[in-house]
Each structure stands twice: as C-alpha cells, then as structure tokens.
Amino acid sequence: MRKTEKMTTQEIEKLFLNTYQRYPFLVKKAEGAFIYSKNRKYLDMISGIGVMSLGHSDKDVKKEVLKQLKLHMHLSNLFWQKSQIEFAKEFISTLKGKYRIFLSNSGAEAVETAIKIAKLPFDEKRRKFLAFFGSFHGRTHGALSLTWKEDFRKPFEPLMPGVKFVPYGDIDAVYNELKKLEFAGVIVEPIQGEAGVITPPQGFLKNLKSACEETGTLLILDEIQTGAGKTGKFWCFEWENIEPDILVSSKAIGGGLPLGVTAVSDKIAELIKPGMHASTFGGNPLSCSAGKITIRKIKKMLKSVLKKGETLKKEIENIGFEVSGKGLMLGIIIGKISKEPREINEFFLNEGVIINTIKTPTEEIRIRILPPFIISEREISIFINVLKKFKKSL
Ligand SMILES: Cc1ncc(COP(=O)(O)O)c(C=O)c1O
User: Three-state SS string across 8-75, please?
Assistant: First the structure.
C-alpha cells in the first residue's frame, strides 16, 4: 500500500466515487512538459488529456488570470463582462464565417448546448442525430447518447432517443440516413481522439458538409480535442476548407481552466431567445481571461506544431511503428498484441513518461500522444528513447 501524504491510497479512494484509474502518486507541481511528484518527474505526453497545450503553468496565462482575479471573480451572466467579450472576439476571430458563441464549463456541456440548439430549426418529426462508430462526445445524458462505446452507454439506458450510428468515414452510409430527412444534425470529430486517433479518409468532412447541405441537416463539429491548434491549423476542419453550422470546443481553449464553447452560425443563432439556455458558471471570468491569452499564443504556434509533429512522426516511424493523426495529435499504431492498455501505460510510467493507451473499435492497440506545443527536442528524445525500449519489450 502506497502512502500519499499521511493517508493511505485506500483511505483516499474512499473519499471519491470510483470513476477513474489514477496514477499511484500525488502531484506536487507541474511545469512546462513535466509533472512532479515528491521524488520524481514525469514527461506529460498527453498534456492533461489535451488541455495544457501551452505546457503546465504557462507564465502569460497565470499573469492574465491573476490580473482578472484582482478585478472580480464570478458575477453571473446577468452582467456584460470584459473578460467574456475579449474572449468571444478572440474566439470568433479564428473563424471565417459569422458565428455567435455560448459559454459553458466543459466539453460535455458544450455538446449538450449544441444538441438543444440543433433541434430549434426543425419540428418534432426531424429531431434525430447521426453520429459515428467510435465517436466520443462526453458523459452527460445527451452527449453520452451520441457516444458510440456500448460499455459507456449500457448501464444508463434508456438514453436520448433518435440517435443512429454509422461507420466513421462512410459517406454512402451517411447519405442513406440523411436522405430520410429525419435528422436535425450530424455530429462528428474531424479526428476521433478517444477511439485512438482515428483519421477518416481524405475529403470525408467535405463530403459530409455537402451531404448536410443537400439534405438541410446541420453539421456539428466536435473539435473539443482536435481544436485550438493540435493538428497544426487552429481548427482541424480548416484542412478541408469547410465550416460547420455548429462548432463545439473545450479542453485546451481555456488554457487550463474550465471552459466550453458552442459556436453557432448566425442564421441559427437568430432562433435563440432569452431563457432558452443558461449556465450559472458558464464563461467564468478567470477561464475567459485564460482562454483569451491562450488563443492569442496558440495562433502564433501553429507552424511549430506542424514541424514538431513531423519530427515526432518521423522518429516514431524510424522505430518501426505506423503513426496516425496530424500535428501534435498522434496515434502510435501498436497493432493486435496480448498486452492490455493498462500494462502499457504502466511501462511508460515506470520510465517517467505519461501516455494514454487505447484499444480501438477494431481491437487494435494504439498509444495516443497529445504533447504540449512547447515540447523541446530534448523532451522529444526522452520520449523516443522510452518508445524504443517499449518496442524491444514486445
Ligand atoms: C471529442 C470530445 N468530445 C467531448 C468530450 C467531453 O469533454 P469533457 O470531458 O470536458 O466533458 C471529449 C473529452 O475527452 C472529447 O475528446
């Protein structure tokens, strides 16, 4: 039994619902690409699951948050707030089309908001949603209904009715469903993160956009994981030169503080009236001030995300693994092996590296890495050396 401060792990476990498999150490601090326990430092190759893209404890984010802290904390959404206005301007400046935003606190909440808003243009005969095999959109009731993995959904059924799943990347299957004119929206991740960094065929998003336009269905892009620069463009959909009707963002957009954003194109935004939706903490001033500076900084880092992504990809391929994903959102394809994801995570943890191993919908093992954009050459080589060691252990 390990001791964490004065309590045993077992005592600590009794304080919380047993929802997470946590690492067996207590964090002392986190800085740059590293997380520190009392005795050791760990290279965080998943950046707090895709949140800390600027690295841990970014100085500019901290400065901005402290500045805001001196002015005020929560006020409520009954007030116009400079931090929200500045964040909104910065966020909307990343998009070509005309959008308005709703601010919440997490990815799942941003998805819930999207589900409600997407229903508004349609009557009750057209309120189904199309989602994809392998999809992950969150754990709240609505978002979970759009999430593919049966293990996640089964214990909580019945969930939201009217959700149909089709194979990811299969545009014919999409057309077959959408032509029935029963769907309000299609929700899709441009790259599926939780499923193991699964990339759809080239042109899929563009075809999806056309299918939505032809059938009058709304395209909802979930860029909670892919967005805010991870793939080397601010939004992953920019790779296919399209724009969604509704965009959901969270994770890195708040620079380490909780923030969810649902961006809605102007023509749908007009349907929203006061009282239709709300969130007490949505758009917290500290999160908005962190988010504003984060967007400004990420915009300047996109080229380096691509360059570092290319370096990493080449080095991983040199070891003999294929790589999926784009920029600094990468999947290392290990294939079908007898090791469980947990064993692989432990192997890396023992070597001082934090990664995330996933069994894909086709039972293949992939290591997901979402390194911080500030990762240095030296830190990349630390990871590569451990990956080499892992390869030898197979
Ligand atoms: C694509 C995607 N959508 C939604 C979510 C849910 O976000 P949250 O955990 O903030 O509710 C996640 C989280 O991993 C995600 O990756």
Answer: EHHHHHCCCCCCCCCCCCCCCEEEECEEECCCCEEEECCHHHHCCCCCECCHHHHHHHHHHHHHCCCC
- pLDDT tens digit at each of 394 positions of the chain: 455 458 999 999 999 999 999 999 999 999 999 999 999 999 999 999 999 999 999 999 999 999 999 999 999 999 999 999 999 999 999 999 999 999 999 999 999 999 999 999 999 999 999 999 999 999 999 999 999 999 999 999 999 999 999 999 999 999 999 999 999 999 999 999 999 999 999 999 999 999 999 999 999 999 999 999 999 999 999 999 999 999 999 999 999 999 999 999 999 999 999 999 999 999 999 999 999 999 999 999 999 999 999 999 999 999 999 999 999 999 999 999 999 999 999 999 999 999 999 999 889 999 999 999 999 999 999 999 999 999 999 9
Residue of 224, 253, 259, 261 to test ligand 1 pocket, by largest number of atoms within 8 Å of CB: 224
Residue 225: CB within 6 Å of ligand 1? yes
- Could you tell which of 251, 257, 281 is best to mutate to test the pocket of ligand 1, judged by most ligand atoms within 8 Å of the CB? 251
Is the C-beta atom of 290 inside 6 A of ligand 1? no
Instruction: Provide the H-helix boundaries in 102-237.
Output: 107-119, 141-145, 150-153, 171-178, 204-215
Q: Does residue 223 have its Cβ closer than 6 Å to ligand 1?
A: no
Distance 393 CA to ligand 1 centre (A): 32
316: exposed, middle or buried (C-beta count within 10 Å: 0-12, 13-18, 19+)?
Answer: buried
Q: Which of 194, 248, 259, 279 to mutate to test the pocket of ligand 1 (most atoms within 8 A of CB)?
A: 194
- Other CB atoms within 10 Å distance of the CB of residue 279: 17
For β-strands 128-132 and 163-166, DSSP reports them as parallel
Q: Where are the domains of the chain?
A: 1-44, 59-299
Q: Which CATH number fits domain 59-299: 3.40.640.10, 3.40.50.300, 3.30.1360.20, 3.40.50.1170?
A: 3.40.640.10
